[in-house]
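Task card 7
Instruction: Convert sequence to structure tokens.
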Amino acid sequence: MVILLLLLVSLSSGQDILRIDLKKAVELALTQNREILRIKKEILSLEDVYRAEKWDRFSPKIDLFTDRDSFTLFGSVLLLDFGNRLARIRSADLSVRIKRELLREFERQVKIRVVKLFMDLYLAEKLAEVKREEMAVAYVRFDRERERLKEGLSDRVKVAEWESTYRRFRAELLEAQRKYNETLYRIKRFLGIDVEKPVEIDLSSLLEFTFPEDRVIDPSYILKRIENHYLVKVKTLEIAYLESRAKEQRRVFYPELYGFVTSFTPFDNFGRTRAEANLVLRVPLFDGRTSFYREKSFLDLKRAVEIEKRDITERLRERTLTLPYEWEELVAEYQDAVAFDRWAQENLDLSRSNYELELAFDLGYAMSTKTEAERRVMEAKFRIILFLMRVYDLMGEDPMKAFSGEHPFFTERVEEI
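Output:
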């Protein structure tokens, strides 16, 4: 009966575990991440400003004026605008578009961040496994030396040395476990999940990732698409925004046609209410060159942003041209890690075949070395995943395309003769 109750409790608690793979984690982050929610609220605020500018153009306005003798209702509406009101609407629209572009880039960065957190979790778990195996070997050796000391076959120096080694590996294991749990809590918080809620992280998307290590990067493909990088697009929008703001300042010789309606009612005789309507054409002739300097200020800012945009474009071009070299370096590091893992496996097989009591420690170290080699292989692969995600981000595309298996910026390797 007790066993049945325990089984039911374990099943009910297991149902409360939230299982998260990489795809689900990205979906949760895009809908629940607090920074994304904040930016979306800011966009709503800017959209309200844009709507206000649109309505302000031709919205009628009514004012009430009163004194001790009468009250007057005064209504006005802008009928035609040959000047800056359209520029104000365009400026508000561009502000919204800039913020939306920043939101799209932040969403791309969130995806990269989620993948990076998953990677950190795996590496912390694997490091803890390495330290656990090293600690176990050191403890067995420490315990063995204590027994040898009792038999007079060892000395206190060796016992103290192995105890120190065991304590060091134990401290490193606890540090790795702390990092694992910290990363797990960080994942929950980043995804907008209660940090106390039990979760199960599915890392299969990362562990099964494959890439074409026999191919090379074609920078010409990426160079054609760096105009889609968010910084280039934002600076283009900023240039248009500053140009629109400059047009807002052009007020001299820009006529405006208003319609006015006035209703005058004296307090001593409400039956004598008098109403009249009128059209007024307003043409500003001179404002002391104030608008000229304000316009010039925005145009100077526009030219500064144009210079900044050219510099950003050149830096992106420079970054793109270095990608093939970085790719070769990452592939070489991965191949080095794979070679080390292959040696670690051979060394482990040899240690198992030579297993004796005196060589048990060698087998333990061979096992921990093999685990460390597996960690190095995955760490090298993770760097390649992040590299591919950043390449897609460089082109203004979804970084999750790195997991698609098809990458259009790769080309066949040409062997030098």
